[in-house]
Write the structure tokens for this entry.
Amino acid sequence: MTDAFTVSVVVRGYETDSQGHLNSAVYMQYAEHGRWSGLEAAGIRQSDLLEQGVGLIVLETNIKYLKELRAGDEVTVSCRYVFGSGRTPKTFRFEQEIIAADGTLAAEVSSAGGLLDLKERHLVPDPRVYFRALASDPGVLGL
């Protein structure tokens, strides 16, 4: 995945299921970790968003599981932020890959997200405005 932020994770034993592979719910946690790590790399902390009265939300997620992961496996979680590709300018996409150390694609995660106005309880008209204003390195977000 080009122009994507990446973060490394090691699969922990307690994250595996009774078959010994990574529990499906943990893939979601890895994706979430990748999204927040990318925002932090851009200079945006969760508290920064909350101080602006907005919160990052996920509206939809699709995961394709492609390779089993087991305890001790090292993976890279990527996250590419795609603005202007949703049904409205209020939404954006997170395109993510979870890649095993040998380069094998273990999972693809695609999510729709937005910024929720925490007082009015609706999506902000253009989340890029908030991200650009808060980011010290907006290039990490593709802005």
Notes: The domain at 5-138 is CATH 3.10.129.10 (Thiol Ester Dehydrase; Chain A). The chain has one domain: 5-138.
